Amino acid sequence: MSNEFNLNINKRDLMNKGGRRRALKEGKVPGVYYSHDSKDSIPFYIETTELNKAQKADWFLFLTQLNQFIEPVASLAGRAIKAYNENDDSDPIHQLWLMNVSNSSKFLNSWTELRDKFPPSNFLELGTVVSGREEGITHYVLSSQKDFKDLVEGSNDSKEESDAWAQFRAERGETKLVRSFARRLVKKWK
């Protein structure tokens, strides 16, 4: 094991959704540092290759380095409503979307219609937040991936699937994305 690990983080310009997608396709994982003592935020990106190197390095050294740039913001517990490939949840890279959903049944019906028509190949779970400290979060979506490359590349949607996503967004009811983040599963308790 090494005694130190240097994580190269690069400052970036703020970008719109299209710019963020381009960055992800180029192997850059965007992030934003929010300072606790300032109203300024600093957008940055980390090269996927850097994250993969960090994965291979001593994990705790990686976390120590990363914790210099982040501050924990939430502690939540949830209950699954609908899961796909639930017996295969061992992939270590997780993407979470935390949302405020105004009409749970409308959202669930639209989600089920979309995902039954286009079932995911990986573990995917929709759930409700049952306890936690962050205001306004009612639901979450958890998706697992084998590695950061799968997370960054995402899926190659067909025209039919893209149209189904547009229909889902139109029919799900008022929904606000509160936070989205990726995490690495270190250990799982059963």
Describe this entry's structure for a reader.
The structure is a single chain. With 190 residues, the protein is of the alpha+beta class. It folds into two domains: 10-66, no CATH class; 76-184, 2-Layer Sandwich (Alpha-Beta Plaits). 31% of the residues lie in helices and 32% in strands. The protein is built from six helices and eight strands; from the N terminus they run E-H-E-E-H-H-E-E-H-E-E-H-H-E. The strands form two sheets. It has a five-stranded antiparallel sheet. A three-stranded antiparallel sheet has the order 1-3-2. Strand 2 and strand 3 (41-47) form a beta hairpin. Helix 4 packs antiparallel against helix 6. The longest helix has 14 residues, at 104-117. It is globular, with a radius of gyration of 18 Å. The two termini are 29 Å apart. 13% of the residues are buried. The mean pLDDT is 78.
What's this, in brief?
By secondary structure, the chain is of the alpha+beta class. It has helices spanning 17-25, 48-56, 59-66, 104-117, 148-153, 159-171; strands at residues 10-11, 28-34, 41-47, 76-84, 93-101, 124-132, 139-145, 175-184.
| Secondary-structure element string | EHEEHHEEHEEHHE
**CATH second-level architecture of the largest domain:** 2-Layer Sandwich
Radius of gyration (Å): 18 Å
N/C terminus separation? 29 Å
Indicate the proportion of strand residues: 25-35%
Domain module count = 2
Q: Give the biggest sheet.
A: 5 strands, antiparallel
Helix fraction by DSSP (H/I, runs of at least 4): 25-40%
List low-confidence stretches.
none
Q: Let me know the average pLDDT.
A: 78
Structural class: alpha+beta
Global geometry: globular
Q: According to CATH, what is the class of the largest domain?
A: Alpha Beta
Q: How are the strands of the largest sheet arranged?
A: 4-6-7-5-8
DSSP, total strands? 8
Number of helices: 6
Question: Do you know the CATH topology of the largest domain?
Answer: Alpha-Beta Plaits
